[in-house]
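phosphoglucomutase (alpha-D-glucose-1,6-bisphosphate-dependent), Heterostelium pallidum. Tokens?
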Amino acid sequence: MIEPELITKTLETKPFSGQKPGTSGLRKKVTEFQNGLYLHNFVQSIFNVLDANELKGATLVVGGDGRFYNKQAIQVIFGIAAANGIGKVLVGQNGLLSTPAISAVVRARRALGAIILTASHNPGGPNGDFGIKYNIANGGPAPESITNAIYQQTTKISEIRIAENVVGAIDLSKLGVTQFKSFTVEVIDSVSEYATLLKSIFDFNQIKSLVARKDFVFNFDAMSGVTGVYASRIFSDLLGVPLANLINCVPSEDFNGGHPDPNLTYAPELVDKMNKGLFDCGCASDGDGDRNMVLGKRFFVNPSDSVAVIASNYQSIPYFKSGLKGLARSMPTSAALDLVAKDLKIPFFEVPTGWKFFGNLMDANTLSICGEESFGTGSDHIREKDGIWAICAWLQILAVHNADAAKPFVSIESIVHQHWRKYGRNYYSRYDYEEVDTKLGDEVMKVVSDGITDRSLIGRSFNKDGQTYVIEHADNFEYKDPIDKSVSSNQGLRIIFSDGSRIIYRLSGTGSTGATIRVYFDKYEREESKLFNDTQTHLKFLISIALELSKLTEITKRTEPNVIT
Ligand code: G6P
Ligand code: ZN
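Tokens:
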């Protein structure tokens, strides 16, 4: 068959304002992306910052979480990629690839990078959100130097190069290759390369024995996101979980009207079943598969504890058999992981919010396991956080603790309690105030940052019911990357008390409407008698201090947060 020539055209365009990538790419309402050449502008801007020689003949991975507008956007990307010199695009079947799977494919196929179409855990559908993000050759999110350069391009873009006969010409439902002259699209299986990687990390036979136990029931909720496709192949086909225990596993363009964020508020169906004690382990993942929530029977594993428990049980996971290089967490994540690093005598890093900050440390071979309070957990097997990986890690740890089938089942709760007994417990919670008027959000942050700048916060003390908190340190977190020495400032306001307790204020970088104010609370307890209290009760006074210091209720008139983690 003769390969068709590319019919390349130049479209004139004008910049759209506001195409600045946030914590994790550009996220806007679908309707904004559908506006004229909005998407085209951003995609062309990505290619404009890449070196033309590097682009020539290179491989690019493209895929998304299956949300509304995914398939149309992919066809546009094919056309612009072809006209900009890309030699080959690998795309997931039906346009589906989870964010961690994309990272795995980029690394395995030595691709130049990837364009990921997702707004992660934000709702989808015609009135929902859409998102686009660029990942680099290590499989991780582009660093700020690149995302800023892309943004600069969006402010002055005037032309788009597009191969028009490519757009719409590829049937995404069929595996296989479509060949043009000097450009190829390969529709790949969404799961197989990622599953192969997981098989090389975990002992699947051991997990299978756990799953086969009569006294162990596992349940997974894909929240109608992309992981449904992965769950049926990995949890069911490879690990033997009955299909009936995998729920909401058909990817839907609007996540079945839901909010695909695995937390206590947005995964009510699973949380309810776990509270009723129906299963021993219940897990969920977000729209694009990088987040995870792990629940035991009537027990919530806080993400900050989750990464610490995985790290302290690293020997259960074959991939880590030669030891851990280092551990890292984002600044607002609880300090539980710090204690494990200290105990293991390995390097430890505190980075700003955003997975991209872990990539450099991994590439420099100083980081093995890391996590964030925002339900992100992962390792250096790829350069994105990885929901299915985290769930497999927990299954593997459970399998090791339950290797003897004749002994009673060791639960998730008892594994976490064991951890607290050894290291002490970091009581931890996060309050989210969503869709706050942007001005009011800034005002709240200003009240705190003024107190930091004029140092009036230092030394302030708060007393109630025999509890005393004294502010010892307050700052606006700044990070200097130890590898490339780049500096990221303005990464969250920290109030640190003399007992090590912390309050942190941040504005979310992933929302698409108004401002989301996040307030984080972290309080450490070592005494056995204080290890098993209710989190909200235990943190009550610290939380009231946080509200008082920021005048949050007064300014926003919000008396309750939308989400409590
Ligand atoms: C995304 C990033 C995470 C980050 C999270 C925080 O999920 O991949 O690395 O922790 O956003 O979002 P926020 O809304 O708090 O900026
Ligand atoms: Zn996500």
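The pocket of zinc ion (ligand 2) is lined by residues 99, 120-121, 286, 288, 290-291 (CB under 6 Å).
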